[in-house]
Amino acid sequence: MSRYITRLRMRRTYKWNGRPVGEDRKLKRQYYESMSISVEGKTEDATVSLGQYILIEGDDDDNPFVAQLLKLYTDDSGKKKTAVLQWFVRMCEVPQNKRKLLGRDPHPQEIFFYQDRSCDNEVDGETILGAVQIEYVPVQDPFPVGKSRDILFVKLLWDTKSFRALDPELMQPSQSPKSPPPSSRGPQTRALPTPDPSVMKRAMSGILTRGSMSTGKMSSSEAESLHSASKLSAAKALSAKRRSQAVSGPQVRKKLDLCSPSKNMSRDDVLGELLDERSEKTLTSKLNTSPTGRISISIRLTPLNLNKEECVSPLSSHSPDKPRMTAHDKDDAARARTPSRRKDSAALREPALAALAEEEHEDSPINTAATSRSKRKSAQLVSSRIKKQLNLLGNKIGLQSDGEDGDDDDCFIPSKIDLQSSSDEEEEAKIDSEDELIVKKHRGSGTSRSTEKTRVSARTPRKTPSKKTAPATPRTPRHATPSIPSRTAPARKPGNVLEEARARLHVSSVPESLPCREQEFQDIYNFVESKVIDGTGGCMYISGVPGTGKTATVHEVIRSLQQSAEQDEIPHFRFIEINGMKMTDPHQAYVQILQKLTDQKATPDHAAALLEKRFSAPAPKKETVVLLVDELDLLWTRKQNVMYNLFDWPTRRNARLVVLTIANTMDLPERIMINRVASRLGLTRMSFQPYTFKQLQQIITSRLNRVKAFEEDALQLVSRKVAALSGDARRCLDICRRATEICEHSGSQKNSSGLVGMSHVMEALDEMFSSSYISAIRCASVQEQLFLRAVIAEFRRLGLEEATFQQVFVQHQALCRVEGLQPANVSEGLTVCQRLGSCRLLLLEGSRLDLFLRIRLNVSQDDVLYALKAD
Amino acid sequence: VQDRCGCVLMMLCDGVCVQAQKLLRERLCHQKLPDQPVGLDSQYKHLLELLRRTAVHGESNSVLIVGPRGSGKTMLLGCVLRELMSLKEAQKNVLLVELNGLLQTDDKIALKEITRQLHLENVVGDKVFGSFAENLAFLLEALKKGDKSSSRPVLFVLDEFDLFAHHKNQTLLYNLLDVSQSAQTPVAVLGLTCRLDVLELLEKRVKSRFSHRQIHLFSSLSFAQYLDVVRAQLSLPPDFPDPKFSDEWNHSVTKLCEDKTVEEILRRNFNGSKDFRSLHSLLFLAVSRVSVSHSTLREADLIEAWRLISVDSKANVLHGLSILELCLIIAMKHLNDTYDGEPFNFQMVHNEFKKFIQRKSHSIHKFEKPVVMKAFEHLLQLELVRPVDSGVCKVQREYQLMRLMLEHGQVMEALQRYPQCPTDVKQWALSAFG
C-alpha cells in the first residue's frame, strides 16, 4: 500500500468541478457533485465525485483512512470545502483487544464498513487524497486472490463492538443524486444505469487529446483509459449477444474468468497504448537531456490514474466491464491465431511475475529510457500508422455511443462479479509489467509487428500463472514474533497448602483486587474516566517509593475502564505503556509509543515527528490514548525534550491524550524538570504512601484468600517489620514466601501445626535483613581476623579512620607474635588484605601503591570487635 | 627374563603412577566437579530446592550467592545444576543462560549474549542482529510472551554480579528482576558475587524487585575438618584400576597428614585462608613432584611446595641485586629510619652511601656518581623505589622525592640470604643509625 501518492511532499490544490448542484440557504451551503484534485508536479487532475470511495489523509501514511464520499459542500465564503463521509475502517484501526473478535486473520486489503453514530463524519475536503477502489465481497465468499494490492475489500461491518455481515445495500450511497439502484452490484437483475455523462465527455476529450498526442505532453495512460471508457458503450452493442451466451453456463463463465484480459482494452487499444507510450517516451527523451526522471514520473502515474479514472464512475459501475468483454472476444481470436506464441511468451512472463511489482516499477523507466533511443525510428513509424487506425475507430465509437446510452442487457450482470474479481485487481500490476514486457520485446525483435502479436498473446495466458504465483509471494512479516520455546512437560500445580500459599504470595500472581489503595484507585479512575469521556487530554504524576503498588493500581484502573468501555459506558480508548527502564535511551520512548500505537517502526527522530503530527492534527476518528510512562525519571535528557513533548502533547486541542507518569520521588518535577516542563506536567499529582503494617497484613490476607497457611502472629510480625523498614509490599510477600519454605523444611522434623509460625518468620526475617558482615568476620581465617584487629589497632593509634598497608602490617606482625603465630611476610599480608577488600569488609584505595595502599573499614569498629570477641 | 619382568613391572608401575597423578591433577585444577560440595549442605539444599521449583513449578525466583573468592560459589552452582539436570522433569525443560560480568561489560553485549544463548529468532549462526534498543525490545517481548505454565523456565546465571550493577541505569538487572516479579516467562536470576555489600549497589527500584534471598558461603570449617578434606582430596578413589597402588598411596597420604611438619604447614595455610583454592595450589605443587622414582607423596614434597608458595616475591627480587644496589637499599632503609618514613631523594641516598664508604667500608670501593645513579635507576625500574608523585614538576632527577617500597623485615631477610654478602655491609645494615 505504499504506492499512494506521498502526501507530505506534494501540494495539492482542490477545485470544484462544475456548478453547484444544490444550495441550502439556511446553512448557506452550496453542494457540489465532484471535486478535482491536482497534485503539484502532475499534469492531470484526479476527480472525486459523490458516491465514490476515497482516501482521507490520516496519521499513518501507509494506511490512509478510507471512506465513501456522500456530500460535498462549501460554506458561503466558498473557501472551506467540507465532505460528508461514510467511514470504513482498516483492521489496524480496530482496537487491539477487539481484533480477535473477527475470529480469523484479516485479509491484508480488508476493510470494514464502519457504523458508529458517535463518529464525526464531516471532514475538511482538503484532506482527501484521491479515489480508491473498494469491492464488496459477500460474507461466505472467499477473498479474491491475485488482485492488485490497491483494491480494498469490504465484507463485514464493524459497529465498535462486533463484526457483522454487511448488507450489500449499505454499500450504495443514498444521498448521491446519480446513485444507481442498489441492485446494481447485487446478483439480481436491476435497472440500467445511465452512463456517466462526465465519463462520456471525458471520453470524447480523450480522443481529442489523442489527436494531439504527437506533442507528447499528455500521459498516454490517461488517454488510453479515457479511450477505453469511450469505447465501452459502442462495444456494448456489438458484444451484447455473445455476452449473454457467454454467461449462460457456469463453465463458460469460468473460462471467461480465466481468459478475460486484465485490461479493458481491445487489441488495438493495447497497441495504441503501447505505441503512444513509445512515441511519447521517445519524444520526451528527445526533449530532455536526462530523461529518466521525467519518464519515470509518467510511468508511475499510469496505474494510479487508471485506477482513479475507473473510480470516477463507480456509479455506472458495470461500464468498465463491457470493453473487457470485447477485449476478451478479440483475445480469444488472437489466441486461436497464435497458439504457439503464447507458450513462449508465457515463459517470458514468468520471471517478471516472480519479481515484485514495486521492483518492476523501478526498473521499467530505466529500461525504456535506455532502449527508446535505439528503437525510436521504427517505433515512431509504427505508432503513427496504428494511431491513425485508432483515431478512426475511436471516432466511430464515439459517434455510436451517443445513440446507445440507455441500451443495455440484463443477462450480462451475473457474470459481472466474476469478471471484476478476476480482472480488476491485476490491472495495475499488469500495466507496470507490460511496460517492461514491451521493452523486452522491443529489444528482442525490433520489428513492431512481432511485438504486437506476442503482446496480445502474452496477455491471454498470463492469468493462469499469476493466479498461482500471487499467493506464493507472501509479504515478509514486519517483525518476527519472538518467544521462549515452550516446555515439554507441563508445569506442576501446587500440591499442598504451603505450595498453594507460596504461589499466591508470589509477586507476579495477579490479585483479584488491590486492597488498601481504594482512594488512589478512585482518584486515578476519575481522572482518566473524565478525560476519556470528554475527549480531552491531561497529565498526572504519580510518585511513591518502590513496592507501593503504583503500577499495579494504574493497571487495575485501566482494566476496569476497559471493562466499562466494553460495556459501552464510556468511549473506547487505547492504552499504551512504556517504561523508562525498558529502553536504552530516552529518545527510544518515541519509537516505542509509535510502535505500540500504529505498529510502525521508525527512527527516534522520525517517530517524534509522526507522533507530533498525530497528536496535533485533527482527526475525526481518533480514540483517546491513555499513555502510562513508568520510571519517568529515566526519560530525563539534558534538553528534556522527551519529557517536554510527553507533557505538551496532551495540551494540544486535538490530541486526546492522557499521560500518566510514575516515578519514585515526590519532588521529581521540582528537582529535575526545567520550568516549562514542570509547568506542563500540571498540578495533578498523587503520592502513594508506604504501606502501614495493617495494610500489609491486609494485603497478605487478601492474597492468601482463606488459604490457611500462616499463624496470625506471624503475619503481624512480618508486616510490622516490613512497615518499619520500607513499607515495600514486594519485600513483605517475599519474606512470607521464604517463611513457607523454611516451614516446609522444618515441618518434617518438628511436626507442629503445619502452619507458618513465629519461628519460621523470624528465621526468614533474619536471613533477609541481618547484615552478613558479622558472620563473614566470624568465618574468616585467623590471619584475616588478625588483620582486621591490626586495622583497628592502627586506627586507634593514629586517631584516624584511614591507614596505609605498611602501618597496618607492622601492627599485624606484632599481633601475630602475641598470638604465637609465625608472622606473615609482606606477600601473604597483602593477599589477606586484598581478600578482605574483595569482600568489601575493607575499602582499599590505590592498590597500585603497594605498601602505601590506603585502608579503611567498611564496617563499624564495634561490629568488628563484637564479631571477634564472640569468637 | 627377570630383567625383562622388572622392566615390565616398572612400566606398569610407571603407568599407574601417571594415572594417579592425572586423576589428582584433574581434581586439584577444578576440571571436574566434586561429587558433593564440602561443608555447604544447607546452601546446596536451599539452592537446589529453589531451582527445582523454577524448573518444575515455573515459579520465578531471584537469588544471590555471596561468598569470598575461592569459597566455592561456582562449584556449588555447578553441583546444583548437575543434580537439577539429572531430574527428569527438569532435564529438557530448562534453558540456561550464563553471563559473566567480566565478559559482558555492558548491557549491549549482555543482551546479545542472552539472545544468542536462547537461540531466539534474530540469531543467524552465532551473530545477533539489530541495534541495542531493538535487541532489548525483542528480548523483553520474547520474555513477555511466555507464561508460567507453558514456557520453559530460563535460568540466568550472572557471575560477578556486582559488575552488572555498574552498567548504565542497571537496565539489564531491572528487566531481568522485573520479569522475575511478573507473570511472564518463569526465570530464575542467580547472581554470584564476592561482595557483601552488593545490595547497596542496586538502585532502589532494582533492589525492590530483587527477592532479597541471599545464600552466603562462609566456611566454618575447623582445622580437623580441614585435615580431613586434605586427606580426601589426596586419596585415590576405591575404583582406581590398580588397588595395590591405591592402597599404598592412600596409606602414605594418611601417614603424611599425621606428620607434625606437614600439619604445621597445613595449619599455616589454613590460618592464611580457609578456601580450598589456596589448598589446591599447594597440593598441586606437591603432587607434581611425585615421580616414578618415588611414587608416594612424601613430606619433603609438601615442604618444598610450601616454600615455593609462601616465598615473599620482593625478597626474591632482592637476591638478584648487585652489592652496590643492595648498599643503596640499605642506605634508604637508614634514611627511612632516621626521618620516620619521609620521602628522600637520590642525593640523600648518595650522601648516606658515601658516608658508609668513607667510614666503615673495607671491601667496597668508591663508585663514581654516574655509576651510583645508574644503579639507583635500576632500582627504580624494578619498582623497589618509587617516585612520590610521578614527576608532576620538572625536578632534576637527583632531587626527585622517592619512597622505598620495602619493609624493614624484607631487607633484613634478603641480607641474611644474600650469597657472600660482605660482613661490613651486613653490619652497616644492622647498625642503628647510619
From TrEMBL, chain A:
<dbReference type="InterPro" id="IPR003959">
    <property type="entry name" value="ATPase_AAA_core"/>
</dbReference>
<dbReference type="Pfam" id="PF00004">
    <property type="entry name" value="AAA"/>
</dbReference>
<dbReference type="InterPro" id="IPR041083">
    <property type="entry name" value="AAA_lid_10"/>
</dbReference>
<dbReference type="GO" id="GO:0005664">
    <property type="term" value="C:nuclear origin of replication recognition complex"/>
</dbReference>
<dbReference type="GO" id="GO:0016887">
    <property type="term" value="F:ATP hydrolysis activity"/>
</dbReference>
<dbReference type="GO" id="GO:0006270">
    <property type="term" value="P:DNA replication initiation"/>
</dbReference>
<dbReference type="GO" id="GO:0003688">
    <property type="term" value="F:DNA replication origin binding"/>
</dbReference>
<keyword id="KW-0547">Nucleotide-binding</keyword>
<dbReference type="GO" id="GO:0046872">
    <property type="term" value="F:metal ion binding"/>
</dbReference>
<dbReference type="InterPro" id="IPR050311">
    <property type="entry name" value="ORC1/CDC6"/>
</dbReference>
<feature type="region of interest" description="Disordered">
    <location>
        <begin position="399"/>
        <end position="495"/>
    </location>
</feature>
<comment type="subunit">
    <text>Component of ORC, a complex composed of at least 6 subunits: ORC1, ORC2, ORC3, ORC4, ORC5 and ORC6. ORC is regulated in a cell-cycle dependent manner. It is sequentially assembled at the exit from anaphase of mitosis and disassembled as cells enter S phase. Interacts with CDC6 and KAT7/HBO1. Interacts with LRWD1 predominantly during the G1 phase and with less affinity during mitosis, when phosphorylated.</text>
</comment>
<comment type="similarity">
    <text>Belongs to the ORC1 family.</text>
</comment>
<feature type="compositionally biased region" description="Acidic residues">
    <location>
        <begin position="402"/>
        <end position="411"/>
    </location>
</feature>
<dbReference type="Pfam" id="PF01426">
    <property type="entry name" value="BAH"/>
</dbReference>
<keyword id="KW-0460">Magnesium</keyword>
<dbReference type="Pfam" id="PF17872">
    <property type="entry name" value="AAA_lid_10"/>
</dbReference>
<feature type="region of interest" description="Disordered">
    <location>
        <begin position="167"/>
        <end position="200"/>
    </location>
</feature>
<feature type="compositionally biased region" description="Low complexity">
    <location>
        <begin position="467"/>
        <end position="482"/>
    </location>
</feature>
<dbReference type="GO" id="GO:0003682">
    <property type="term" value="F:chromatin binding"/>
</dbReference>
<feature type="region of interest" description="Disordered">
    <location>
        <begin position="234"/>
        <end position="266"/>
    </location>
</feature>
<dbReference type="GO" id="GO:0033314">
    <property type="term" value="P:mitotic DNA replication checkpoint signaling"/>
</dbReference>
From TrEMBL, chain B:
<dbReference type="GO" id="GO:0005524">
    <property type="term" value="F:ATP binding"/>
</dbReference>
<dbReference type="InterPro" id="IPR027417">
    <property type="entry name" value="P-loop_NTPase"/>
</dbReference>
<dbReference type="GO" id="GO:0005664">
    <property type="term" value="C:nuclear origin of replication recognition complex"/>
</dbReference>
<dbReference type="InterPro" id="IPR003593">
    <property type="entry name" value="AAA+_ATPase"/>
</dbReference>
<keyword id="KW-0539">Nucleus</keyword>
<dbReference type="InterPro" id="IPR041664">
    <property type="entry name" value="AAA_16"/>
</dbReference>
<keyword id="KW-0238">DNA-binding</keyword>
<dbReference type="Pfam" id="PF13191">
    <property type="entry name" value="AAA_16"/>
</dbReference>
<comment type="function">
    <text>Component of the origin recognition complex (ORC) that binds origins of replication.</text>
</comment>
<keyword id="KW-0547">Nucleotide-binding</keyword>
<comment type="similarity">
    <text>Belongs to the ORC4 family.</text>
</comment>
<dbReference type="GO" id="GO:0003688">
    <property type="term" value="F:DNA replication origin binding"/>
</dbReference>
<dbReference type="Pfam" id="PF14629">
    <property type="entry name" value="ORC4_C"/>
</dbReference>
<dbReference type="InterPro" id="IPR016527">
    <property type="entry name" value="ORC4"/>
</dbReference>
<keyword id="KW-0235">DNA replication</keyword>
<protein>
    <recommendedName>
        <fullName>Origin recognition complex subunit 4</fullName>
    </recommendedName>
</protein>
<dbReference type="GO" id="GO:0005737">
    <property type="term" value="C:cytoplasm"/>
</dbReference>
<keyword id="KW-0067">ATP-binding</keyword>
<dbReference type="GO" id="GO:0006270">
    <property type="term" value="P:DNA replication initiation"/>
</dbReference>
<feature type="domain" description="AAA+ ATPase">
    <location>
        <begin position="59"/>
        <end position="220"/>
    </location>
</feature>
<comment type="subunit">
    <text>Component of ORC, a complex composed of at least 6 subunits: ORC1, ORC2, ORC3, ORC4, ORC5 and ORC6. ORC is regulated in a cell-cycle dependent manner. It is sequentially assembled at the exit from anaphase of mitosis and disassembled as cells enter S phase. Interacts with DBF4. Interacts with POLQ.</text>
</comment>
<dbReference type="InterPro" id="IPR032705">
    <property type="entry name" value="ORC4_C"/>
</dbReference>
